[in-house]
Amino acid sequence: MKVAYIQMEPRLLEVHKNLSRAERFIKDAAREGAKLIVLPELFDTGYNFESREEVEGIAQQIPDGDTTEFLVEQAREHEIFIVAGTAEKDERGKLYNSAVIAGPLGSGYIGKYRKIHLFYREKLFFEPGNLGFHVFNIGMAKVGVMICFDWFFPEAMRTLALKGADIIAHPSNLVMPYAPRAMPIRALENRVFSITANRVGEERGLRFIGKSTIASPRAEVLAMGSEDGEEVSIVEINVEEARNKRINELNDIFKDRRPAFYSV
Question: Does the N-terminal or the C-terminal CB of the chain have fewer CB atoms within 10 Å?
Answer without folding.
Answer: C
